[in-house]
Every structure is written in C-alpha cells, then in structure tokens.
Amino acid sequence: xxxxxxxxxxxxxxxxxxxxxxxxxxxxxxxxxxxxxxxxxxxxxxxxxxxxxxxxxxxxxxxxxxxxxxxxxxxxxxxxxxxxxxxxxxxxxxxxxxxxxxxxxxxxxxxxxxxxxxxxxxxxxxxxxxxxxxxxxxxxxxxxxxxxxxxxxxxxxxxxxxxxxxxxxxxxxxxxxxxxxxxxxxxxxxxxxxxxxxxxxxxxxxxxxxxxxxxxxxxxxxxxxxxxxxxxxxx
Length: 235
Description:
single chain
C-alpha cells in the first residue's frame, strides 16, 4: 500500500472541511417564502389600520340616517289641517307642509298659542278676498280695493284658484300674522301673498262672510271674526 504524502493529506483535508455550496433552487424557495411573509404582514397591518376608520364611517352614516328618519317622523307628525271656527260656521283648510314649511310652522305655532282666537276680519272685498289680522294694516288698501274692483269684473275662470289660504309677503312683525282667504281666482296671487293652504270644506261659509255689509274702506260694519282654530292631522 502506497503511503500518501503529508502535503496531499493536507489538501484532501481542506477539501472535506470546505463549505457546501447553496443551490439556486434553495435561494428561490427561501426568497419566495420571505416575500409571502412580508406581504402577509403588510396586508394584516393595512386591514387593522383601516378598520377604525371604516367603523367610524359606518357609525356616522347610521347617525345621518337616524337624523333623517327623525326629521321625516317629525314632519309627518305636524298637523296637516286646520279647522277655523267662525260665527257663520267652520272652514276646513289643508295646510301645504311641503311647499310652504316655514309659514306653516309659524301658523301652527300661533294656533297653539291661541293667537287667532277672537281675531277679527278686518277687510272684506267681495269677489276677491277676506282678510283677518291683529291690526288694520293690509299693505296699501287702495291698491287692494282697486284690484278687487277690477278683477271682479273680469272672466277669471282661467286664473288662480279661489279659496286659497295665504299670508302677506310683508315681513311679519310684532303686530301679528295676517290671514287671507281668496273668494275668487286671483291672477296676481303670488305677487301679494304666500299661499300655504286651501279650503277643502266650508266654501259656503267663506261666501257668507264675504256677503256681510262693509263701509267704503271694505271694513265690516258689524264685528265678525275667528272664534278658534283647531289643528288636525287628518279630517
């Protein structure tokens, strides 16, 4: 048996102790696992970081929906009709809660305070309008009476409906709230009044009030007014 030289043994020993090479497949697999782990961690962090915001948005949307539901409920609870009692009989009025909400709210508030109880009809212009209010002011009475005389002689069949409930467009002050009920179609109704209701029952009562005697200023010679106003949700 041949003896191995010491130098050859040293070289052979170094070859055995040298590091093993890592294969390309191992590197690829390890890199893929690392990338997947980092992606999973990032996804988890993003999910939990956005969760409070999402819940806050859902909570806020719930509050908005609840507020809208409350507003709709409050609106539906408002009275939709008013029964105006007079010495000639009762006049039932449907209130326009959708088209004139602010005026209707003010009218309802005054009714609940009893403001209209005992209020007199201050001016009555035949074939035109009857007006009740806390004072004698009705804007320019000359303008109203001139228009009343003029339109009472016209064919008004194609103009504004009669028996509409309105109030003056003049800003309301401490002197009170004026009520107007038209007794004939008015072509310039929207120029003079804010319409917030219409008579659905008791047109004949309005016409009887219209027939009372008045002086040259269209003021009733004998007092006639509103006894009370009762609010109703349905009639």
